[in-house]
Amino acid sequence: MLLNAVDAALARDMAHAMIDGFNRHYRLFRTESARAKHRFETCDWRGQQRAQRERIEFYDLRVRECQRRLEREFKAGDQPMAVWQQAKLNYIGLLVQHKQPELAETFFNSVTTKILHRSYFHNDFIFVRPAISTEYLETDDPGAKPTFRSFYPSIDALHATMAEVLKSYDLRCRFDDIERDAQRVADALRSELGTDRQRPNFQVQVLSNLFYRNKGAYLVGKLINGFREVPFALPLLHRDPGVVYVDAALFGEEDMLLLFSFSRAYFMVDMEIPSGYVQFLRSLMPRKPRAEIYNALGLAKQGKNLFYRDLLWHLRHSTDAFRIAPGIKGMVMLVFDLPSFPYVFKVIKDWFPPPKDTTREQVRAKYQLVKRHDRVGRMADTMEFSLLAFPRSRFDDALIAELEQHAASQLEVSDRDGDGQTEVILGHAYIERRMVPLNLYLQEAFDAGPDDAAANAQLEHVVIEYGNAIKDLVAANIFPGDMLWKNFGVTRHGKVVFYDYDEIEYLTDCNFRQVPAPRNEEDEMSGEVWYSVAKNDVFPETFGPFLLGNPRVREAFMRHHADLLEPGFWQSTKERIQRGEVLDFFPYGAHRRFEFNGGVKGAGELVDPAAAQAETPADRADTSTPTTAEPSE
Q: Is Membrane one of the keywords UniProt gives this record (predicted)?
């Protein structure tokens, strides 16, 4: 449809206003990310944490700004659809030479759906599929850094090249001993190559900017030898303020997946061309969805957009039905999944039975708290969606009945868009990575019996991991509230992660008490509590009966984590946080650290991995000078 001159000019101006809004957003996002280098150099850990939290809000603020401008200057909500269609075409033209076209398309979607109040994402006025390719995007500014740089060493002079690589990031602090670190890295790289001979294509490729998170900076790259590629990451930490060193060498996809895990805080990295960084990282982690890589880089809206596209694609090419998720049903959340898709969908119930004393708004606030908080590898990231639409034919009848009974306010079953297809429309839902519920994981070990060595090792491992998860959360100033096994999950890497947030509190808001001695025999025999309990009082001694009913679990737990049943552990950690200490967490095992074993292959023979896992945050941290890796808030 041809527009008259006035409407054509209006559509063009709307498109320019939209791209101005996006450019402002990404300029501020990139500036804050770039400042992470200075905060690392100056050991401004509190500032780093604050910036990580605040940056999450940038996107929504800029979307609202752009929305208000369009409504104020162009009365955008009153414009006919022909104007919007032309505005989109004009916008595409503005993206042809753009360096972040995929992010700009998502920004256009966010602004448009807010103004037009659309119920669905798939229509003519937004980008359902990308219009601009991001393949081979690169900066044309001769003074700008490329996405990655290549170095061409010989295998015998690898240490000299690694020293050159470390120096190339121009950190304004000195290395403790750069020659030592370069030699350690070179030895570790040669160890990874094993007996492989040097091939004609022998090179080191590294992303041009460091990745910052809390107290750590990470150099990310890969070693290429002929047809073989070895992903690696080098964590840089401060030994003393202003004095840095390479703490470890991480190798292979598994180490990279743990570093970029969905259960950790987002990285800060200065990227002119984010799609180039994502493409490079996917070459290191081919099994990790692009959506999760964008999330890990702090570009959560782009990650959410890609996830939704992946979900629609999966629905088109699968036939199984959504069902009630396996496990014990929650009192606050109704959880369902699609067996062929590795995520779970969570809907807040309309009402909560006693003893739950919360509201929908409070539950949503808890999820927001987790989104902004440092998740320290122990809390699953979630994506929040409104008006999710699925084909009714893909829903199990039992699940529909469950939704009608417990979350009717969030459910609509209709043909709202008039295409002849009945759909299930969810008003609000959270989506997160699927894990094996810890109670079901333990049950597998119970079912195998006490004489099964593999089952005993499985039980021992997850009980240790469960206690470590709680201790990491506590050191991050999070009290989980409901610590039952069913509220934790086991990832495919064997990590135990918390995922039920409706009862979490800041540790510093809790009062940890000893159970008072009974006043008399009547108190001692009573099944009722004989002492006063205030709202935030917590009695760690009482955890045992709820958690340790199985003798095998109790024996393993008491050997490794008996301190969790004592008020002293909780009180001392609370006091450290209140004193302003920034506690430390490492996204890699102690057996990877050079100071333990030189970071060489076979490190597991030199450091007991189980012992390394059993370390508490207090054991791992240098509390007198907080200068090591990733701290909690």
A: no
Question: Residue 561 is encoded by which pair of tokens?
Answer: 């984590």
- Compute the distance between CA of residue 612 and CA of residue 620 in angstroms, rounded to an integer: 9
Q: Which of 381, 500, 502, 584 is catalytic?
A: 381
325 is in an annotated binding site: yes
- Contact assessment for residue 159 and residue 182, using Cβ atoms and an 8 Å cutoff: yes
Q: Does 177 qualify as catalytic in the annotation?
A: no
Residue 366 labelled as part of a binding site: no
pTM, two decimal places: 0.89
pLDDT, one tens digit per residue, over 137-187 is 888 888 888 999 999 998 889 999 999 999 999 999 999 999 999 999 999
Cα–Cα dist 256/542, whole Å: 39
Q: Residue 79's beta-bridge partner residues?
A: none
Q: Which residues 6+ apart lie within 8 Å of 94 measured at CB?
A: 15, 16, 19
Compute the C-alpha angle 373/378/383, nearest 5°.
Answer: 60
Share of the chain above pLDDT 70, in %: 91
Distances in whole angstroms, Cα of residue 401 to Cα of each of 9, 328, 398, 404: 51, 17, 5, 5
Q: What is the DSSP string of 129-167?
A: S-SS--TT-----TTSPPSEEEE---GGGHHHHHHHHHH
| 329 annotated as belonging to a binding site for a ligand | yes
- Confidence class for position 117, pLDDT limits 50, 70, 90: low
Could you tell me which residues come within 8 angstroms of residue 203 by beta carbon, excluding any fewer than 6 positions away?
Answer: 150, 151, 152, 153, 223, 224
**Distance between CA atoms of 132 and 130, rounded to whole angstroms?**
6
- Residue 214 half-sphere exposure, CB side, CA atoms within 13 Å? 24
> Nearest-5° angle of CA 253, CA 255, CA 261?
95
Is 82 annotated to bind a ligand? Reply is no
Residue type for position 255: D
Residue 342 marked as a ligand binder: no
Contact 629, 585 (CB under 8 A): yes
CA 299 to chain centre: 11
CB of 506 closer than 8 Å to CB of 478: yes
Dist CA 53 CA 461 (whole Å): 33
CA distances 214 to 36, 238, 405, 475, 500, Å, are 9, 12, 44, 14, 24
Please state whether beta strands 478-479 and 505-506 pair in parallel, antiparallel, or not at all (unpaired).
antiparallel
The count of other CB atoms within 10 Å of the CB of residue 348 is 24
On average, the pLDDT of the chain sits at: 89
Residue in the structure block whose two tokens are 């033209």:
93
- Among left, alpha and beta (phi > 0; psi -120 to 50; other), residue 324 is beta
92: pLDDT strictly greater than 70: yes
The model's pLDDT over 415-456, given as tens digits with 9 standing for 90+, comes to: 877 778 899 999 999 999 999 999 999 999 999 999 999 999
327 is in an annotated binding site: yes
380 pLDDT band, cuts 50/70/90, is very high
- Does 93 appear as a known binding residue? no
Nearest CA to 274 out of 425, 488, 102 is that of: 102
